[in-house]
TrEMBL record:
Chemical reaction(s) catalysed: nicotinate beta-D-ribonucleotide + CO2 + diphosphate = quinolinate + 5-phospho-alpha-D-ribose 1-diphosphate + 2 H(+)
Enzyme Commission number(s): 2.4.2.19
Matching NCBIfam families: nadC
Family of the protein in this entry: Belongs to the NadC/ModD family.
Organism expressing this protein natively: Kineococcus halophytocola
Gene: nadC
Domain named Quinolinate phosphoribosyl transferase N-terminal: residues: 25-114
Stated name of the protein: nicotinate-nucleotide diphosphorylase (carboxylating)
């Protein structure tokens, strides 16, 4: 599913600029000549992986239009670029009032999204050679899901379902309601297929090995093994492989220290909420000089 207009880079930036300067930038407008030009470089203060450049472009472009100025240069390295401290990742030159209005919004988004990409890259590097994919979850910042998921891709990761509307994912609470209602799990899961499109994926989460038989009997597309020990995870993968063609996903408190061991049990996917929940903001700076027009 595509994001709604409000959740695209353009929409997010428009809201951010309106929030940050609802009646204009009183400092720049009272201090700087309208024709003053700012020439700035985006500089890395620490190593990482770049993400968020689409949003940064929008910030500088929209701010130039809002201030009635011009944008002469806007060059940014592509998302996914790995960088070291001191690397110059981009340059912007234009009317100073516009550049300075955009600066904080552009940096906020670049720093946060590059943090997501950098953490994702660390998880992807950790599972290299296992054949497992690192995927994100719905644990995203409200309103920033499209941007954060693009940052996950920039870091080499993959995206899970976009929203509740895009795939069936039966979790522990769904199963608890089914059982409390006296319904048979296998029968209920089979009925799901009759109520959805043939292109919609059905995934079911289990947190114990003894739950697998009823799920596999329903011929689902993906089995999610949640918070399994490594021994149980290996046993679960073996059982799924012997009974179905379903993909196997592992989840639950996955860390950089544990992710490789999980991937080595033969799972296809490792979902990591920390990619978007726990990413640290990176230190990027916009070093600006102001010159004549």
């Amino acid at each position: 599913m595509n994001p709604t207009p409000a959740h695209t880079p353009a929409g997010v930036v428009a809201l951010a600029l309106a929030e940050d300067a609802p009646w204009g930038d009183v400092t720049s407008e009272s201090l700087l000549p309208a024709e003053a030009v700012a020439d700035a470089q985006l500089v890395a203060r620490e190593p990482g992986v770049l993400a968020g450049t689409a949003a940064a472009r929008e910030a500088f472009t929209q701010a130039a239009a809002l201030t009635g100025g011009r944008l002469d240069t806007l060059d940014l390295a592509p998302d996914g670029t790995r960088f070291a401290p001191g690397d110059v990742l981009g340059r912007v030159r234009g009317t100073a009032r516009g550049v300075l209005r955009a600066e904080r919004i552009a940096l906020n988004l670049l720093q946060h999204l590059s943090g997501v990409a950098t953490l994702t890259a660390a998880f992807v590097d950790a599972v290299a050679g296992t054949g497992a994919r690192v995927v994100d979850t719905r644990k995203t910042t409200p309103g920033l899901r499209a941007l954060e998921r693009a940052a996950v891709r920039a870091g080499g990761g993959h995206n899970h379902r976009w929203s509740l509307s895009d795939a069936v994912l039966v979790k522990d609470n769904h199963l608890a309601v089914l059982l409390a209602s006296g319904l048979d799990v296998t029968t209920a899961l089979k009925s799901v297929r009759e109520n959805i499109s043939h292109t919609t994926t059905i995934e079911v989460e289990v947190d114990r090995l003894d739950q697998l038989e009823a799920v596999l009997a329903a011929d689902v597309d993906v089995v999610l093994l949640d918070n399994f020990s490594l021994a149980d995870l290996a046993a679960g993968v073996a059982l799924v492989r012997s009974r179905s063609r379903a993909l196997v996903e592992a989840s639950g408190g996955v860390t950089l220290e544990t992710v490789r061991g999980i991937a080595e049990q033969g799972v296809d996917l490792v979902s990591v909420g920390a990619l978007t929940q726990n990413a640290r903001t990176l230190d990027l700076g916009l070093d600006t000089t102001v010159a004549g027009a």
